[in-house]
Amino acid sequence: MSAPEGNVGSGGIDLLLVEDNPNDAELTQRALKKSGLGVGLTIARDGAEALEYLLGGGHPRPRVVFLDLKLPKIDGIEVLRRLRADERTRSIPVVVLTSSQEERDIAECYKLGVNSYVVKPVEFDKFYKVVGDLATYWFVLNKSAL
Amino acid sequence: MTSLEDVEILLVEDNPNDVELTLRALQKQNLAAKVFVVKDGAEALEFIFATGPFAKRKSAKLPKVILLDLKLPKVDGIEVLRRVKSDERTKHTPVVMLTSSQEERDVLNTYNLGVNSYIVKPVDFSNFVHAVSELGLYWGLLNKIPY
User: Fold this and answer.
1) Which of A65, A115, A118, A127 to mutate to test the interface with B (most CBs of B within 10 A)?
2) Radius of gyration of chain A (CA)
3) Closest among A109, A107, A122, A136 to A32, alpha carbons compared
4) What is the model's pTM?
5) Nearest to A143 among B92, B118, B138 (CB)
6) What does the pLDDT profile of chain B (147 residues) look like in tens digits?
7) What contacts B23, CB < 8 A, 6 or more positions away?
8) CB-based contact, B116 to chain A, within 8 Å
9) ipTM of this complex
10) CB-closest option in B112, B120, B143 to A118
């Protein structure tokens, strides 16, 4: 678990990024910094770390979770299932951010109550832009439950 | 207004000024042609579940997103949300609350019922137009749905 590195002032935890690919995590971190929104970022590198962070107690509640699907230890679908089954985390917006375009994955995530499903663009520039668009939507427009 | 078979955005809004502003904002993103407007919660449910005057929609796809006000005549937004998210046929359809309520109780309540996103209507005209055009792009283009 890395410290909140992208934090530009709020001191709070805004975004939990659950991502095992270091390149994607770094790119996301850079795009968030570039957005200038001051999003406080924490990164979990696998599903078990994410669940420990969110359900283990002792951590502030993030405003949004960006969740990859293919993850070591516990996969993203199972993380989503457990977050939705627990009253403490049921109302946290979860955005699946994945390279999978499979209908089965998309349908399963919605069935489990995902808030949004976004496919990671393969190209660097487009991925960078999508992260900026996601940050604007979920941190400027959307209101999360406290 | 579009044909009933080709609706991508269902707007559930009883305030005519907000309807007009929303359509104007979506027009900027070339999304206005695919919007269908209903003015109360009962009509929204008839549209979504293809009953009553909308029975001929039976074979049509569900919209890419439902923009739902909270305070509505006949059936309120909370009840529309509850019905959409508790039905296997419609629970996959993204629902975004677009409301003037900033009450934490409404926010928490709608998330617990499975709302996909909660947007407080900006009071300022240009901020309202900007917010609607951003959310049109997000749910119209960026977000993926299983149908």
Assistant:
1) A115
2) 14
3) A136
4) 0.93
5) B118
6) 557 778 999 999 999 999 999 999 999 888 888 999 999 999 999 999 999 999 998 888 899 999 999 999 999 999 999 999 999 999 999 999 999 999 999 999 999 999 999 999 999 999 999 999 999 999 999 999 998
7) B11, B32, B35, B37
8) yes
9) 0.94
10) B143
